[in-house]
Design a protein that fits this description.
The chain has 461 residues and is of the alpha/beta class. The protein has three domains: 155 residues, Alpha-D-Glucose-1,6-Bisphosphate, Chain A, domain 3; 209 residues, Alpha-D-Glucose-1,6-Bisphosphate, Chain A, domain 3; 84 residues, Alpha-D-phosphohexomutase, C-terminal domain (TATA-Binding Protein), CATH 3.30.310. Helices cover 38% and strands 22% of the residues. It has 15 helices and 20 strands. A seven-stranded mixed beta sheet has the order 1-2-6-5-3-4-7, with helices on both faces. Strands 16-20-19-18-17 form a five-stranded antiparallel beta sheet. The chain has a four-stranded mixed beta sheet with strand order 9-8-10-11, with helices on both faces. A hairpin with a 6-residue loop joins strand 10 and strand 11.
Amino acid sequence: MSLIKSISGIRGTIGGKPGDNLTPLDTVKFAAAYGTWLKNENPGKKLKVVLGRDARISGAMVQNLVMNTLVGMGIDIVDVGLSTTPTVEIAVSMEKANGGIILTASHNPKQWNALKLLNHKGEFLNGAEGEKILINAENEEFLFAEVDDLGKIGVIEDYIDRHIEEVLNLKLVDAEAVSKAGFKVVVDAVNSTGGIAIPALLKKMGVEVVELYCEPNGHFPHNPEPLKEHLGEISKLVVKENADLGIVVDPDVDRLALIDEKGQMFGEEYTLVACADYVLSKTPGSTVSNLSSSRALRDLSLSHGQKYQASAVGEVNVVQLMKDTNAIIGGEGNGGIIYPESHYGRDSLVGVALFLTYLAEKKMLVSEIKESYPQYFMSKNKIELTPDLDVDEILRKVQENHNSEEITTIDGVKIDFSENWVHLRKSNTEPIIRIYTEAKSQEEADKLAQKMIREIEEIVA
C-alpha cells in the first residue's frame, strides 16, 4: 500500500494507516492544504471550487471528505458528481471558480484514488504552486471558518452534457459528416465515467455504439491502463461486430486509445498524430508533445510545413510550451490530446470528435490512416541503481559520450540520432533511470535500449 505526495496532488491506496495510505485523515489534511493555498492566493474573497470524480468505489467517500473539509474552511462547492477530468477542467472556467479538484487515480487500479488539483483556469498547478500545498500539508496550519461563514454545496448534474455540447460546437468537429458516414464503434470505458461520456457523445454524432464495460460502477474488469496487453476483449469484439473502430479510455477519460477495424491497436502515440494531421490540414500552426513522445508528430508537423517543439514530461510542461509557442494542438504520447480551441487539458472527448470527423472526411479505413504515417516503435525500460550512486553524474557522463549528437537536457538527457532516439530520465522517488527509445523497428528500439543499459553499467562499474 502506498501514499504518494507530489506537486500535482496526492495519490494513494484506500485503507491502512494514516501517512502510509490515502486514509480519511490524509484526505482531509490535503484538502485543507489546498483550501489554505486558495485562501492565501485570494485574500478576503469568497471562494468557489468545482469538484468531480470518476466511478471508483471509494469515490463517494473521498468526495464527501473533501467537500466538507472545504465547506469547513468557508469555501463554496460546485458538485458535478460523476464526471471526467476534462469535464471538471471545463466546468472551472464555465463556473468562474477559483479552482477545482478531480478525484481520480487515472489509470491506477481500483484500490487507488487521488486528488488532482486545478487552478482558476481549470489547469493543473505548476511546480511552485504544488510545492506551497505540500508545505501547507506538512505544517498543518489550517484556519477553519466559524459557523456563520461555512461554505455551501451546490449540485449541477449535467456537466458532461454541457461538455459534449462544447465539443460539438468546435469549428473542426462535423457531427453531420460523421453521421452520414454511418460508423459503428465499440467502446470500452473500464466501468468508469467514460461509459457515460463517450457513448453519449457518439450517439449525438450519429454513431452506432456497442458498449463494453460502460457501467460506471468502479469495478474495473481489467487493468485500466489502455495498453495492448489489457485490451484483448475489445479487439476481438471490434472484429466480431464488424465495427469501424474501437475506442478505449482510462477511468478519468483524459487518455484515448483506438483500435482499427482489424482489431489491431492504432497506438496511443498515434492518437495525437492523427488528430494533429486533421487539425494541421485545416489550420496552420505549431505543435508540441513531450520528449518521450513519438518522433512521428515532429515528422508530420514538418510535412505540413509547420514547427514542432518538445517539452519536459508532464502535462503542465506541455501546456506551458504550447502557450509559449501558440501551438494549435499538442499532447502526450499516452493518448492525451490537448486542443486549445477547447481548453488546455488532455481531453478524450475532443480527441474522439476530431478523429471521427477526420475519418469521415478521408473515407479511409482506420488501418489505412495508420499506415499513412511514419512508422516508429518504442521500447520502455529502466535500470535500477544503488541509492548511493549519483544519478545526475551518470546522466552527465552519458551526455559527454554523445556530445556530437543532438542533445536536449531540459528533462534528463535525450539524444536524437539520425534514425532513432533515446531519452534517459531519473525517477524522483527511487534510484532508477528510465530508458525510452524509439526506432523504425521494434528490434532496433530494443537493441538501442540494451546498448544504453550496457553503457550506463560501464559508467557505474
